[in-house]
Design a protein that fits this description.
There is one protein chain. The chain contains 25 helices and seven strands. By secondary structure, it is mostly helical. α4 crosses α6, α8 packs across α9 and α10 packs across α18.
């Protein structure tokens, strides 16, 4: 049995590439961190179409996919037009220049690239030519013109951004596994402009228009971009939303931190709470001697019932017949708690053997509808995610305006994937998507935010908006994001402090959640009433208990 499971793997070529890589010196190796990753498997499994390119492959990860190879002719056409625009140099000279940067290009990719140097350089030159021709739509809007879009590319490149093919390529351009280093675009532009400054101005105008088109949030002027600081298009989008953080972050791995809101308190609550409830009711009935409670007490506590309550039930419960009833009652109310607390329970062992993916299903925060009913107002904030705040005095939650269209879900998902893979700071995008997933449960929640100007809905319906956020419930790990965590805590404290919410929780925990206990009590009361009816059918109850009946 061979150790190599890939029949197309060339071991000799692999050894040659490794030896050549080790022999080469990369002076700027420490300045070129890995920034193009494979999407984590947990996220990829949730919705693969949002992470795998559907129209065009950019870079080495999906280059040889047959379903994407149809776009190669458009890439070659873009490369020919680039060659015409080069200043007295051939396209091969551009390829030769990129070959010199081969180690730097390879250093950007997390995955080992099974391409030789020439193949990689040609791939980068052609893909960069296609990408620049597509991005020039935004430079034309800004008053720049690189080359005229050919008739062959006219159905792909849309100045108005309304064609489906245009949006499909845009979605592919923001996918994490479909990135090429931005310095490659700078190299190609430098061959087309007299100076590097002019090339950077051209690229800056492209990025500014690209950011305005794809960024879900309202951003300020993007013309002051430092082109040399951007790793690739997705990295550029991420850092205009989440500012670069120089402080190290504490990353905490979390598994199933937020279960469903209804499932956190068990099926009928802690039995100690039920005991406290009945103790409060009993004390109220025992100490009240006047008013309607005293009349109610005389009604439900006549002399026979008082006699029954005064019986030595601890002794009676140990009798043979009553002990069986006692075991049944304990099984109904306390068996679940015992199973949960018993570490030797077979079910717990089986559950512990199941490897659960590190998912964050939903954070503990009320939905928009619940907050709205409790008096919380929603207002759009001026800025991006960092502008999220909660004013407890005014009961107002400020959220950034987010624009949702056909490209937004792919953009958000890949931003979260890039953030989780790069892990250069707190996972702000992840926490934001968890917050929106937590407060938006139904289309009514989406409608409220749309009417308040927080959601600009360019999708078909509010239901699609709710499905978009509810579908983004899986993330890799969670960090402490202080300003967002404080907002969530303040909102929860305000909501739980309202008397209507307290009453609803009381009913849910003690009444609705205790349906087994209430069923048992009702059964016992019915049994006692039937016994009393049988007793009164034999004996004269009014005369025995000295009760007068008024006709």
């Amino acid at each position: 049995m061979t150790s190599n499971s890939n029949p197309s793997f060339d071991e000799l070529r692999w050894v040659i590439e490794i030896r050549r890589t080790l022999d080469e010196e990369l002076e700027e190796d420490s300045e070129v961190p890995v920034n193009i990753y494979n999407v984590p498997k947990t996220l990829m499994a949730a919705k693969p179409d949002c992470y795998v390119p559907q129209e065009v492959a950019l870079g080495p990860y999906h280059h040889w996919q047959p379903e994407l190879y149809e776009m190669e002719r458009y890439k070659l056409a873009a490369a020919k037009r680039t060659q015409k625009h080069l200043q007295r140099v051939k396209f091969e000279s551009l390829v030769d220049q990129l070959t010199k940067h081969e180690p730097r290009i390879r250093a950007c990719y997390h995955k080992f690239l099974e391409f030789n140097g020439d193949t990689l350089a040609w791939m980068m030159a052609i893909d960069a030519s296609f990408l620049l021709e597509f991005l020039q739509v935004y430079s034309i809007k800004a008053g720049w013109l690189l080359t005229r879009v050919s008739s062959r590319m006219s159905h792909l490149v849309d100045y108005a951004g309304t064609k489906s093919a245009h949006n499909a390529i845009l979605r592919d351009m923001v996918m994490l596994e479909n990135q090429i280093p931005l310095f490659v675009l700078r190299e190609v532009l430098e061959f087309q402009f007299p100076t590097l400054d002019q090339a950077d101005d051209m690229l800056r105008s492209m990025l500014a228009g690209f950011g305005e088109d794809l960024c879900p949030f309202r951003m300020k002027d993007l013309t002051q971009i430092h082109v040399e600081e951007q790793a690739h298009l997705l990295d550029f989008l991420y850092h205009i939303i989440v500012p670069r953080s120089k402080e190290p972050s504490e990353i905490i791995e979390v598994e199933n931190e937020g279960e469903s809101k209804e499932g956190k308190e068990g099926c009928f609550g802690d039995s100690s709470y039920v005991q406290q409830l009945f103790q409060i009711i009993w004390n109220l009935l025992s100490t009240s001697t006047e008013g309607p409670i005293s009349r109610l007490k005389r009604l439900i506590l006549p002399d026979p019932v008082k006699v029954i309550l005064k019986l030595p039930w601890k002794t009676i419960s140990n009798l043979p017949g009553f002990s069986i009833l006692k075991q049944r009652v304990e099984h109904i109310f306390f068996s679940q708690n015992k199973e949960e607390n018993n570490p030797e329970n077979g079910n717990s062992n089986s559950n512990s053997n199941i490897i659960k993916p590190p998912l964050i299903e939903e954070i503990a925060i009320p939905s928009v509808s619940e907050l709205y009913k409790s008096g919380v107002r929603f207002l759009p904030a001026n800025g991006s995610i960092s502008s999220i705040t909660f004013d407890a005095k005014m009961a107002t939650l400020y959220l950034p305006t987010v624009s949702l269209d056909v490209n937004t879900e792919v953009t958000l998902r890949n931003l979260v994937a890039y953030e989780a893979s790069n892990a250069s700071g707190p996972l702000v995008m992840t926490r934001y998507t968890e917050l929106m997933n937590g407060i938006i449960d139904t289309e009514e929640d989406a409608k409220i935010l749309r009417e308040r100007g927080i959601i600009l809905n360019r999708l078909k319906s509010d239901e699609e908006v709710a499905n978009l956020w509810n579908g983004m419930s899986k993330s890799i790990r969670l960090t402490k994001v202080p300003f967002l965590d404080k907002v969530i805590e303040d909102v929860n404290n305000y909501h739980t402090g309202i008397w209507k919410v307290k009453a609803a929780k009381f009913m849910k925990r003690y009444v609705i959640g205790s349906w087994q206990l209430l069923t048992f009590v009702a059964t016992v009361l019915i049994f006692l009433l039937m016994t009393l009816q049988a007793f009164c059918s034999v004996y004269n109850c009014p005369r025995m208990f000295r009760v007068t009946t008024d006709l």
